[in-house]
Batch of 3 targets.
Target 1
Amino acid sequence: MRKYNVGIIGGTGMVGQRFAAMLENHPWFDVKVVAASKRSAGKTYKEAVGSRWTIETPMPKSMEDIVVLDATKDIEEISKKVDFVFCAIDLDKEATKELEYAYAKADCPVVSNNSAHRHTPDVPMIIPEINAEHSKIISSQRKRLGTKRGFIAVKSNCSLQSYVPALYPLSKYGVKDVLVCTYQAISGAGKTFETWPEMVDNVIPYIGGEEEKSEKEPLKIWGEIQNDEIVPAQSPSFTAQCIRVPVSNGHLGAVFVRFDNKPSKQEILDVWKNFKGSAQELNLPSAPKQFLNYFVEDDLPQTNLQRNLENGMAISIGRLREDTQYDYKFVCLSHNTLRGAAGGAVLLAELLCAQGYID
Ligand SMILES: NC(=O)c1ccc[n+]([C@@H]2O[C@H](COP(=O)([O-])OP(=O)(O)OC[C@H]3O[C@@H](n4cnc5c(N)ncnc54)[C@H](OP(=O)(O)O)[C@@H]3O)[C@@H](O)[C@H]2O)c1
């Protein structure tokens, strides 16, 4: 595989730093550009991030002296220097949409962490193991934008990256009704215990906008391409409660599910064990070898013990048992800033490269 030159838009932020750390020594991707707000533009990456570096591993040496560009003013220059950009930026929805369109129209593909375009009908929202074929909509998007190379592809919200991977492979049994409660880490709000001391010894039963995303986004992932858009599925029906808990990283979901044709417990376990998606079949560099991992111990998965499984890219599941109201209940876990944010976007970019969309 050839090497690709890459930019990180929003590279000084929390997710941007994760991109920086994940892309150090990446076999296909070389970071050539970092862009952020005008507050950071003109400074070296090391100066711009300063004491805000939140990752356990040190800042990559190769990035320390990169001079940060202005994400909104330097679009033409950035687009000429790179093959594509990752985008994780803190702007309002309309401004984010416009910024991502501007990069795509400058013929620079955008692999985005932001939510702004998740429901744009010809923008694919992809979990590479689940709905890799949704990338086919890119030709329709390019036609609409009038671009040759440029397009936008997005990853889904971090909250659903534990339960959608567990449920989608069970589609042949007709996943009908899903009730999920998520227990979400503070890094999902871009925070640490130092910057959010109110979260120590506390639970907050509200995360703005999260329940709507957790109920609506799975339907686009279950959706299908019709003409020039991805039409969301009508089912399963999802209902969600999303709770902020005093955990640094890792979102845990407690799931209740009802099927059209109830499988046996063993059938569910076999599906999870044997499931492979395009990410595994194409042997993408960031793909976990075993995507879905079932733990038989009653007290697993635990956020602190399993969140880093396979570099934080695998899903951990446990406690599958029959329920008194639904068919089954179980718990599942994913790392919110790895699989749920930067890692999911890196894997998506690898998929798009392997499929030939970033040539
Ligand atoms: N944190 C998570 O776990 C997570 C998970 C999934 C998705 N996301 C999404 O990812 C995006 C970034 O989140 P984050 O937590 O990394 O945010 P963050 O730490 O606040 O970082 C925001 C980035 O945006 C830049 N920025 C802010 N205002 C700007 C402007 N006016 N023009 C250009 N750049 C500007 C910042 O640059 P400066 O450093 O120069 O200010 C910084 O690089 C958000 O859309 C968020 O919803 C976050």
Target 2
Amino acid sequence: MNEKKLSEFWNHRVEKQYKHYLGTEFDKKHEKYVDDLTNNFFNHIDFSDIDIALDWGCGGGVGSSLLANHGEVVCLDISEQSLTSCRNLLEKNGQKIKSEILLNNLTDFSIDFEIDLIFCASVVQHFPSLEYWNSVVEHWRKINPEWIAIQTRHGEENKDNEEEYFQDTKNYILALYLTSEEVLGKFSDHYELKYHKLNDDKYSMYEYFVFKKKH
Ligand SMILES: C[S@@+](CC[C@H](N)C(=O)[O-])C[C@H]1O[C@@H](n2cnc3c(N)ncnc32)[C@H](O)[C@@H]1O
């Protein structure tokens, strides 16, 4: 997988409303999206445990801004445009970003902070392959946060889209399906499941998971 192509495609081929940038057609969905994040993530996380959150795939910053209400936030994305858009939103809201990470290549990923929460909303479905998902999970497990909140695109079987990935936006936007067992199995040794929800929005089946480290 050519990871440079991932960010190029996102920057130049994907329409702005899919990027969750405020000030675009995404505005119409913003309020409902905040409700979804609140009901499926924020209401199930104990933020007294959390000093620093890592927003993996921060996009236009909707999640980062909500996270910044509870503590410090590190924003990561493969797209410089997304990081800029996220920075602008938080500045506008009078909030600060602790650190920004432009992820050029998964193998070079490193982080200088202890992370208490990994937050990843509307991103895993854009991953190009099961192999890529496995590598991201390895990084998340090394980070070893107290909490993990992720949303995935649900499938009856695991299915990636590597062959057709760059052919058009839809293939890219809805690329990776994961079963519930796939996600639960990745974390169940060290984490307990605090919340789990499968949502069918008639476009796709989205699945939410909130995990807390076992002690
Ligand atoms: C639909 S937006 C979601 C943004 C934000 N998480 C939210 O909930 O509003 C998807 C973001 O994920 C980023 N992204 C896509 N593929 C990624 C990858 N492999 N790793 C990290 N971020 C990725 C895109 O650049 C984009 O900013």
Target 3
Amino acid sequence: MVTPPLRQAGWTSRHLRHVAGIFRQDQNPAARVYESIGSNCFLAPAPGWLNLGLWEGSGSEEEADTACCRLVQTVAAALPEAGVVLDVGNGLGTQDPVIVKVLRPRKLIAVNITEWQLSIGRDRLREAAALGVAGDATRLPIADQTIDGVISVEAAFHFRSRRAFFDKCFRVLKPGGVLSISDISTERLPLGPLELLAAITQIRVFGLRPSAAMTADQIAEAVRGRLHGCGRHRVRRSGNRPGPSADRVQAPGNAGRARGARWAANCRSPPAQPG
Ligand SMILES: C[S@@+](CC[C@H](N)C(=O)[O-])C[C@H]1O[C@@H](n2cnc3c(N)ncnc32)[C@H](O)[C@@H]1O
């Protein structure tokens, strides 16, 4: 049997450097991961998408594109229309024209730590008339109280700290602004050595920190912690789907009185295990 050289199999020294980067877990592991998996990754449910989707059907492949798009539409729908919208962790940019269709924002800014994705997604950013900004969600290079709505679709599990991200959202949101996110939660510890191995592999391959493992309730609690003193909020669990389940946290009270008083978060769980 002749083994094809790595180059022939589509591997280059750049890929090998990225794999090494993933396992070294450097300063910016998420960017290394997304540079390495590129724009045509077998892990993507549908071309151009890197979220797990919001499914209504049986979970067949034909629904994948619609499910990924539906997730973005659903998360975006909680934000105010015609305002300044900040999209954090915009992936390949496929979601930005979708956000524009839903919200008709006055301005759309997309922040992504993976500069390569901003560059490969520039046509979609142009289509959405969005401004791409290279930056970290836990630092947010955005001025205070300038944003009407923050959207983040399945990116927060990568962030150094979700609480730091919520703090920064609170800083950049105008009074009455809304945060709407979907996220990947971890609902239980691994059962047995195989699940443990799978969990460790996932953490390493996706460049995650062990602290990223939070249940949907803990994520909701972290949002609530930031909302403390800012009025009422509401948590609603929308149940299991062939794709992940979703929780919604909303603080409709005091809109306009306290900074960032209206927030919504979709906190998503991993897909239900078959059987
Ligand atoms: C799972 S992908 C989701 C992409 C996109 N939202 C979608 O639904 O297709 C996670 C995204 O978050 C970005 N990301 C990860 N860590 C980040 C950080 N600290 N700050 C900003 N973006 C980050 C990644 O570069 C990637 O684009």
